[in-house]
Amino acid sequence: MENMLHLAPCRASVPDCFIVPPEQLPPAASVAAVSLPVVDLSGSHDEVCRAILDAGKEFGFFQVVNHGVSEQVMRDMEAVCDEFFELPAEDKAHLYSEDRQKPNRLFSGTTYETGGQKYWMDCLRLAFTFPVGDSTSEWPENPERLREIFEKFGVLTRGVGMELLQLLCEAMGLRPDHFDGGLSSGDAILSVNHYPQCPNPSMTLGLPPHCDRNLITLVHTGPVHGLEVLYNGDWIKVEPMPNAFVVNFGLQLEVVTNGILKSVEHRVMTNSMLARTSRAVFIQPKEDCLVGPADEFLSEDNPPSYRTVTFGDFRRTHSIVKLKSSLNLTTNLKNIQMKDI
């Protein structure tokens, strides 16, 4: 627990283990002429399908509004997350673990190799099944309403993700239930990332450039800037929108579509004035689910670009490569996909 950033006194400088070499920390584009597309789920069905596909092809990211998760649920989630990180250290010490295999844990300063680069973030990561059942029994008991609010937020957010996948199927000519079953029924992950105030944001990162290794991710970013997306070789800042989810495609979706849709690198910057907390739900396949390009995207002129492997094998290989490469902060994780297994 001594590693938890949010429990430490305010620092006057960034410790050496968090410092990123300047050449590996290019600034975001100075001209904010590009912004992520916004998909309004209250629009006409055909327009929504087309908007999701267009946004996915160009950015791999978009923001979604009028998604059906109420403002009250979002506010309750924000409040209980703040309450959790404000708890005394002794009330959450039992949750702390550096064991990456634990489904439910509190950890800090993500490390990609022993003694390697650390990042300016504390994280509460929890897993749940769907239907939920007793999969929340090992979640934190404090604050008092945490389990109730987290479960409601997780289930509703996962539902939005599944709706988006179905709309994407229709837009791409897949059967509507293509992503049902094993491709989406692995443990869902609810990740609460807390980025404390940083004395010098120009020297470190909250999270390094990476692609999500799951199927699809939905993030409620809150009002503080921090998320940046790689677009045409430049980093663009994501402008937070009230009550919106930022949606991005994971590596498994790129594989299923044989590269038509891309999983795009993104990173998180820190802030010297404000702490930032984001809440994300990751939808992923079952460990034993075979993931490969769908037949609908294959032909004699367009052979498979990726091998078909189980999601479990992919995750293990993905972690090994990350450990060996230390990411170098600029490595494109799409190169660690099925082609290289």
UniProtKB/TrEMBL annotation:
Coiled coil: none
Family: Belongs to the iron/ascorbate-dependent oxidoreductase family.
Protein known as: Fe2OG dioxygenase domain-containing protein
Organism superkingdom: Eukaryota
Gene (name only): LOC101755866
Gene3D superfamilies in the record: B-lactam Antibiotic, Isopenicillin N Synthase, Chain (2.60.120.330)
Organism listed in the record: Setaria italica (Foxtail millet)
This protein's UniProt keywords: Iron, Metal-binding, Oxidoreductase
SUPFAM superfamilies: Clavaminate synthase-like
Example GO molecular function: oxidoreductase activity
PANTHER family referenced in this protein's UniProt entry, alphabetically: OXOGLUTARATE/IRON-DEPENDENT DIOXYGENASE
Domain Fe2OG dioxygenase: 185-285
